[in-house]
Amino acid sequence: MDIDWIMQGTLEKEISQKKAIMEEKAVAIKANTGSSATSNGTRTASNTIASTTYGGTSTATNSGSQVTSSGSSTTSNTETSMTSGGTSATSNTGSSLTSGGTSTPVNTGSSATSGGTSTASNSGSRLTAGGASTTSNTGSSLTSGGPSTTSNTGSSLTSGGTSTPVNTGSSATSGGTSTASNSGSRLTAGGASTTSNTGSSLTSGGPSTTSNTGSSLTSGGTSTPVNTGSSATSGGTSTASNSGSRLTAGGASTTSNTGSSLTSGGPSTTSNTGSSLTSGGTSTPVNTGSSATSGGTSTAFNTGSSMTSGETSTPANIGSSMTSSETSITSSTGSSTTSSGTTTASNTGSSATAGGSGTPLTIGIITTSNSISTSAGTTVNEGPSGSLKPWEIFLISLVSVIVAVGFFVGLYFCVRNSLSLRNVFDTAVYPLHGPNLGPGPGGNHTVHHRSRWSPNGFWRRPVSSVAMELRESHNGL
């Protein structure tokens, strides 16, 4: 018994020492777990963790899982973490499985760090059968002088109901790196599925990367994925990538992808891809990539491909690029393949540059079988208004001088060749016609009806026979 008391006292001392060390290092670790299982009732689980550390590490983990049958389930996880000069990691996970009811998981992770690393990860997954499922994931990160990473994932699988996942990741950094990644995937059968992904990133003096992916697979219903990635950077690199793909059978599919990038003094790249494969329904992919840069390079790539069988397919691709004193490249490609339906492909690439070069490239390819095909490709290139640049004036002057010199050189050689031919002609013809040649004292004067050409000039007026006779009679006198 004494040995047991001694061992217990030793363990208590060690635990108290470790606690003191952890408190000195300002390390706070908290974990809350709430699980609930209800049948024919309502269950609400709420987990809240707040952590504030200074010069240390803060880790907060919240997990809420629930399974309900014929009832309502609401899971709310909220976690805030503020660190100064350290590392903050926030992880929120909410999973919900409902049958014949409504499931609403809400996950919020916010992190604010100064001179450190902030990572916010939010995951919401749900599986519903014959009910409505709504997932909302919000991850916001504000960092100053450090890297910030926000990852939001919402996946939804519904059967005979409505599924709406909403994912929002926003990141604002100053002098660091900001990465926002949003992924929303859904699989529905006989219902409506709507995915909305928004990733916004605002950086100053650092690189910003926004990636949004929304994929939808529906059977006999409506699928609408909406992906938006916006990035604004100052003196850094901005990359926005939006991808929306959908596969529908016997329903309507609409994909809208928007990637906008505004950079000042750095390169901006916007890539938007929307692909649609439908069977016996309507497919409308719309892809828009806009880029505005000042003193940097802007590249917008828009690709919309649509394949339909027995229905209508309309791909529309718009790529616009506006640059100031730099290079702008816009490439828009729309391809459509239909079988016994109508396809309309419209591709528009416009480029407006001031003091730089703009290259719009527009390609429209359509292959149809037993259907009507309409293709419209429009390329608009608007140059700068006002006076010409010095290099443009120099180029125009150089071309003008080259053309003038070439013209005069050609004229010189033409005249020279004509004169040499006339010399040969005069030497061969005119010495045969003298006053002593031919019958009679005056010679044969009939040949002088031919015009005489002088080798000393372009031509001489022809001398008539009357003039020749007067000249010869004068010489005879």
TrEMBL record:
Q: Where is the composition biased (Low complexity)?
A: 48-354
The protein's superkingdom reads: Eukaryota
Q: Which gene encodes it?
A: MUC21
Q: Where is this region: Disordered?
A: 33-359
* Species whose genome carries this gene: Neophocaena asiaeorientalis asiaeorientalis (Yangtze finless porpoise)
Q: Is Transmembrane helix included in the keywords of this UniProt record?
A: yes
TM region(s), chain numbering? 393-415
Polar residues: bias regions: 33-47
- According to UniProt, the name of this protein is Mucin-21
Print the keywords alphabetically.
Answer: Membrane, Transmembrane, Transmembrane helix
UniProt keyword Membrane, yes or no: yes
A Pfam family cross-referenced in the UniProt record is: Epiglycanin_C
Q: Which residues form the Mucin catalytic TM and cytoplasmic tail domain?
A: 383-461
Q: Where is the Tandem-repeating region of mucin epiglycanin-like domain?
A: 31-78, 136-201, 301-368
Q: Which InterPro entries does its entry note?
A: Mucin_dom, Tandem-repeating_mucin
